[in-house]
Amino acid sequence: MFALATLVWGVVAFLVGIVIATELAFPSVNLGLDFITFGRLRPLHTNAAIFAFAGNAIFTAVYYSTQRLCRARMWSDMLSRLHFWGWQLIILAAALTLPLGITQSKEYAELEWPIDLAIAVVWVGFFGVNFFMTLARRRERHMYVALWFYIATIVTVALLHVFNNLVVPIGLFKSYSVYAGVQDAFMQWWYGHNAVAFFLTTPFLGLMYYFLPKAANRPIFSYKLSILHFWSLVFIYIWAGPHHLHYTALPQWASTLGMLFSIMLWMPSWGGMINGLLTLRGAWQKVTSDPVLKFFVVGITFYGMSTFEGPVLSIKSVNALSHYTDWTIAHVHAGALGWNGFMTFGMMYWLLPRLFQTELYSTRLANLHFWLGTVGILLYIFPIYVAGLTQGLMWRAITDTGQLAYPNFVETVRVLIPLYVIRAVGGVVYLSGALLLSYNFFQTWKRRPANYEEVEHYAPALEPHYDDDPAPQSRLSGVLEVAKKLDVFEQLVWHRRWERLPRLMTIWVIIAVVAASLFEIIPTFLIRSNVPTIATVTPYTPLELAGRDIYVAEGCYNCHSQMIRPMLAETKRYGEYSKPGEFVYDHPFQWGSRRIGPDLAREGGKQSNLWHLIHFRDPEKMTKGSIMPPYPWLEKRKLNFKTIPDRVWAASYLGAPYDKAALSDSITLAKQQAKAIADDIERQKGPSGLEDKQVVALIAYLQRLGTDLFKTPKSPNPSAEPAPAADNKTARAEPASTR
Given its phi and psi angles, is residue 689 left (phi above 0), alpha (psi -120 to 50 degrees) or beta? Predict the structure, then answer.
């Protein structure tokens, strides 16, 4: 069941990816429909690829291998089926809500709170309980290395999911993160990076450690290396998240710490790659003829490439060039399509004959799939690597006179269109390979026997008591006692004992993950100097809150950042760099992770209200060459003023200091501000009657962005000098105007 779901959702994820890749080159592909714009579909693509395709592949591997490694059937068939159907319903809920703009806007964690609750129940209550009870009732005392990685996956993903998704709901389809600004960004990338670590890495390493030796008919290369590989990954990975936030408003100590641990990750990651590839010693001749091994070899190679590139990208000087560019997109897809995709395909081809008790329908088609997949990956990632480097270099290019070489952001977009087209073609080639696998799956299933042969395996229950092996003795003589103790330790008998104790292994995994997390989380939340207060930063008005939610629903954060880094090229292009204290009322943060369009951190007051209106209606009319899709529905859809009091209440509950008028009469205040903006648009010879439309709320939000920093602080003493506006540096004291 999980294997079939893997294929179905994989095809869906790849197809949606092709659609949004095409939309980047040709925005009109969305046909003017709001639910298939890039901003709405991009999170659907990432969720489908990660949680639907890769997620079902993980469960396929875990359910097949765990029973054989434990010599015991899964503890509960009912929980297994609840897990399957619960997970598919969650994916279906994501497929329905995300295109409708129901989102939290946090990368890889976009789903709203009712779906998050369902994920927790299915992951912990169904999958986790079933797995750990199977471990408890296993009939093989020793836990093989694949099980260690499954334990780490289940425990850590549960922790990440719960603490990143703490929210205040204001309805069935809307909530606000309990974290704000800097803290929310930290929590998001503590989750986001480790979702890659413990959802797309550790379970697939467990898959590798089980299925690769099976396919090669060779034992894993090194037991000791697997131990070092496992514990190094579990302990080091959890520290690395802040490297996604270099040069942002995150405290520098946190991003530096993230960088150091990211660089250290290279060693254990390559330990796993080496362990996998050297398992094939003496079996390389099989690779030429066996498509399963071909997929595994290339998949592990991509794992090595990605886990080398990741630490390189975490280095601050490299990240200064790569961040917000398509380089990151290429890196992620090299890992997802190469490592996760190829390991999944290899596992599927190995499983099909065993699941259906017949020969694979076509080895020739499997080999063709391998080559289509490989060519598809290369066609996809190489143009995007070029696009990323092009973006980074053009953004930072400065002329001899100290001016921007490409001051208009759209200049950096136009040159990428041919690369985006090639990328979409690569996606089509990769999808065609997945369709071949689907055909092979179906034809192999059709050839299954009328009655399956059901072989029963019996293993005696474990004895309640077990005598440990004799304590090892040092193999050295004539040396210091400390050398002898190190020799005994190096024999790893102590770890061999741990491998018989799943509770102890689980406890140590939790300790490693929680200790590393708290070391970064506690200072970030408790040391006030990490987020210096700015006196002029005030909460969003009721209308601006509603506009911000429209910005989130339309997925604008997928294309625009709101974070100006302290770099010459960025401050020249966008304005004063962003300060930590500017984001204290942002639930969740909107710093973004990619710039398909320009940064919006200082957008407020740069353009007139009418300019924004026309820009939403026809972006290319205002910016020639823009690849932003039109948003004509914003002018037609009414703003639901009735929901505004709930938004204001939630913001107040989370710490926004609203006065009594804002709390008791937020609808009136919102309507007054909307009327002022609508009247201003009409005065500029724009359309009338917009005061109750969504576009007015979104314009109000955009006109607010970045303006607080330059307001004059209120002083109780009129004769007193104005206080510094931000970070003990005097900012411009000119009020932000709306032209």
Answer: left
129-178 pLDDT per residue, tens: 999 999 999 999 999 999 999 999 999 999 999 999 999 999 999 999 99
Q: Which amino acid is it at 270?
A: W
CB neighbours of residue 485 within 10 Å:
11
Tally: H helices and E strands in the chain = 31, 2
Task: Check the annotation: does 229 bind a ligand.
Answer: no
Q: In the structure encoding, which two tokens stand for residue 139, read together?
A: 């009939």
pLDDT tens-digit series, residues 654-687: 999 999 999 999 999 999 999 999 999 999 999 9
Residue 142 in marked binding region: no
Domain boundaries, given as residue ranges, for the chain: 1-447, 542-710
Cβ atoms within 10 Å, residue 536: 20
Q: Is 45 assigned to a binding site? A: yes
pLDDT of 638 above 50: yes
Of 353, 345, 355, 342, nearest in space to 438 by CA: 345
The dihedral formed by the CA atoms of 340, 342, 345 and 346, expressed in degrees to the nearest 10: -110
CATH code linked to domain 1-447? 1.20.210.10
- Cβ-based neighbours of 612, under 8 Å, separated by 6 or more: 695, 698, 699, 702, 703
Residues near 135 by beta carbon (within 8 Å), at least 6 away in sequence: 70, 143, 147, 151, 502
**Contact indicator for 609, 681 with CB cutoff of 8 Å:** yes
Amino acid residing at 414: R
Tokens 């946190």, residue located: 254
Output DSSP code: residue 638.
B
Q: Sign of dihedral through CA atoms 400, 402, 406, 412?
A: positive
What is the secondary structure of 36-97 as a DSSP string? GSHHHHHHHHHHIIIIIIIHHHHHHHHHHHHHHHHTS--S-HHHHHHHHHHHHHHHHHHHHH
Give the span between the Cα atoms of 737 and 608, in whole angstroms. Answer: 10
Q: How many residues does the chain have?
A: 739
Instruction: Report the interhelical angle of 363-396 vs 417-446 (nearest 10°).
Output: 160
* Chain segment 238-257, per-residue pLDDT in tens: 999 999 999 999 999 999 99
| Model pLDDT, residue 725 | 42
* Helix (H) or strand (E) segment spanning residue 167: strand 167-171
Query: 1-447 with 542-710: one CATH topology?
Result: no
3-state SS string for 505-570: HHHHHHHHHHHHHHHHHHHHHHCHHHCCCCCCCCCCCHHHHHHHHHHHHCCHHHCCCCCCCCCHHH
- Name which of 184, 163, 154, 99 is nearest 654 in CA terms: 184
| Residue 333 labeled ligand binder | yes
Torsion of Cα atoms, 54 then 57 then 58 then 63, to 10°: 160
Q: Just give the CATH number of 542-710.
A: 1.10.760.10
User: In sequence order, what are the beta bridge partners of 453?
Assistant: none
**Chain mean position to CA 681:** 39
